[in-house]
Amino acid sequence: MNTPLSLTTPALLFPAISLLLLAYTNRFLGLAGIIRHLFEDYQNKPDDKIIQQIGNLRSRINQIKWMQFLGVGSLFLCVVSMLQIYVGMAVSAQYTFGVSLFLMMASLALSLMELRMSSDALNILLSDLEEKHGQA
Questions:
Q1: According to the model, what pLDDT value does residue 55 have?
Q2: How far is the CA of 117 from the CAs of 22, 51, 59, 113, in angstroms?
Q3: How many Cβ atoms sit within 10 Å of the Cβ of residue 13?
Q4: For helices 90-132 and 48-86, what crossing angle results, to 10°?
Q5: Which of 2, 60, 3, 70 is nearest to 29 (CA)?
Q6: For the segment 15-58, what is each residue's pLDDT rounded down to a tens digit?
Q7: N or C: which end of the chain has fewer CB within 10 A?
Q8: How confident is the model at residue 2 (pLDDT cuts 50, 70, 90)?
């Protein structure tokens, strides 16, 4: 770590992290709407498949919660590293910013896993639909 960290380096992550957190929130809200709809469907006509779907959605909601947690942690540490640069703590600022980047990578990795879970769930629904209509 020979290159000194400037205030602009951590500040560059602000727009990216903000947009990412907005995308995570939109995912969460979309899943919440689906869960409410499935709950109403289950109240009207109980079905084991709805219970299975809700189990998958519960896992995805939990995963999004951790994605948001890690993203907020990354943003928080970006701010801390900027404060450390401002008060002249350059070495600790570099380490803090490194941890911030690690948290962001972990958040993105969870996002990829949640995306895979989402596409797997959609493929199951599509295969059920194809089976019902005799398509292969």
A1: 81
A2: 20, 16, 9, 6
A3: 19
A4: 160
A5: 60
A6: 888 888 889 999 889 888 988 888 888 888 887 777 777 888 88
A7: C
A8: low
Cβ contact 90:5 at 8 Å? yes
Rounded to whole angstroms, how far apart are CA atoms 119 and 90? Answer: 43
C-alpha 18, offset from chain centre: 12
For the beta carbon of residue 96, count every other beta carbon within 10 angstroms: 23
Longest dimension (CA), the chain: 69
Q: CB neighbours of 46 closer than 8 A, spacing ≥ 6? A: none
Q: Give the pLDDT mean for 94-108.
A: 94
3-state SS, residue 6: coil
56/109 Cα distance (integer angstroms): 18
Sign of CA dihedral 48, 49, 55, 61: negative
- Distance, in Å, from the CA atom of 114 to the CA atom of 117, rounded to the nearest integer, reads 5
Q: What is the pLDDT of residue 13?
A: 80
For the stretch 125-134, pLDDT in tens is 677 677 777 6
